[in-house]
Design a protein that fits this description.
With 384 residues, this protein is an alpha+beta fold. It is built from eleven helices and six strands. The longest helix has 42 residues. The relative contact order is 0.11. It is a multi-pass membrane protein.
Length: 384
């Protein structure tokens, strides 16, 4: 603590802000989990008992924490600064030499542990507990992953040699998976393979499949129809022949892994930075649109550092005079300010997606706008 906060006033501010932050974070998380439990009660049936539903909701708490940390930091710091102003403690700090620049440097130091906490919750703890939570629910209900499409999940893949191995060759494969079990087994698989000019080469269907330790898919009960063009004198009137093969077991090497399938079944906002990076590379390798996932990736990168922006937004409240309003009104204003940031951040992401704006700027613009508002507010209140 002393290494990060060498001055007495820095340690004092840090303790006050962390205490208020912890209390408000606990209250907000408890409130959101209460509503999650209420919405989950409708699914309690059979083997999915109330204790399992409570465990399912509690395991989602780390993801909730990572979402709420910036808002809790804003509300907690506004409360602390408003209390310091009402008791004239901040005025004493200003007389002792705490100017705006030193205040921002102190807030930067205070925000670093909160940034680390956000990264830990959003990148490691949150995804792990979220996956465990879904597994518990699916196992109790006996259900499988599903997608927003009635026909299952569709994914684009690159072709290899006819035996399913070797280097990538020209052409494309479209894979349709009906459902994915909790143990990464897939069911109701269909594959359509095309050459480089999009002529249909083959159609495969399999009842089930499993990704083995060697990195290939083992498909069961496969029916394969291959199409081949017969040489004709008239190139404008091609004739195709077809052959049907059946395979009890067929191994197939593919870039579509269980991780990619699981990514397709969850929203980009709930994925980790590493998972988003791998999936964006997959989309770009297959020449698919990665705009939505790119925006989510940069938002995940920038999001932890919005904590400093929230603390900077709270600092002007320390300069407000007591007669300008009560502590409760200031805290309410902080809540509204935090909600406006979340709304503006979500709205700007959707606008950037529709306008195909650069993903980095789409993710960075909302925090920059609110940081500019914080600087303007500091300049205004410091001169008053």
């Amino acid at each position: 603590m002393k290494l990060l906060f060498p001055f007495t006033y820095e340690r004092y501010l840090a303790k006050q802000i962390y205490a208020a932050f912890g209390f408000i974070l606990f209250a907000l998380v408890a409130l959101f989990l209460f509503f999650d439990i209420l919405s989950e009660l409708g699914s309690v049936q059979g083997g999915y008992t109330l204790p399992l539903a409570l465990l399912h909701v509690l395991l989602k708490a780390p993801s909730r924490i990572s979402e709420i940390i910036p808002i809790a930091g804003l509300i907690g710091s506004i409360y602390v600064f408003a209390m310091l102003a009402s008791q004239s403690e901040f005025t004493i700090l200003r007389i002792a030499g705490l100017d705006v620049k030193r205040g921002l440097i102190t807030l930067t130091k205070i925000s670093l542990p909160l940034v680390a906490l956000t990264l830990i919750m959003s990148e490691w703890v949150g995804p792990y507990t979220e996956a465990k939570s879904d597994q518990i629910r699916m196992k109790a209900l006996g259900s499988a992953y599903s997608s927003q499409f009635r026909t299952g999940v569709w994914v684009k893949d690159r072709l290899r040699n006819e035996d399913g191995s070797g280097p990538v060759r020209s052409g494309v494969r479209y894979v349709n998976v009906g459902k994915v079990d909790k143990d990464n087994a897939i069911h109701n698989i269909r594959m359509y393979e095309f050459d480089d000019v999009y002529r249909l080469l083959s159609i495969r269907s399999a009842t089930s499949g499993q990704f083995d330790e060697t990195g290939v898919w083992v498909l069961n009960n496969v029916t394969e129809t291959r199409f081949k063009e017969t040489k004709q004198s008239d190139p404008l009137n091609p004739v195709f022949s077809s052959q049907i093969f059946t395979h009890p077991i067929l191994t197939l090497e593919s870039e579509v892994t269980p991780q990619i399938l699981s990514v397709l079944l969850i929203s980009p906002e709930k994925m980790s930075i590493l998972s988003l990076g791998r999936f964006i590379s997959h989309l770009r390798d297959n020449k698919q649109d990665a705009q939505r996932h790119s925006i989510a990736f940069w938002k995940k990168v920038v999001y932890p550092f919005t904590i400093f922006v929230m603390l900077a937004l709270a600092l002007p409240f320390a300069y407000l005079k007591v007669r300008a309003g009560s502590v409760g009104i200031k805290v309410f204003g902080g809540i509204m300010l935090g909600m406006s940031f979340q709304l503006f951040n979500s709205l700007f992401s959707n606008v950037g997606l529709l306008g195909s704006w650069p993903a980095f700027m789409t993710a960075l613009t909302p925090p920059l706008v609110y940081l500019l508002l914080a600087i303007i507010g500091l300049r205004w209140v410091s001169k008053s």
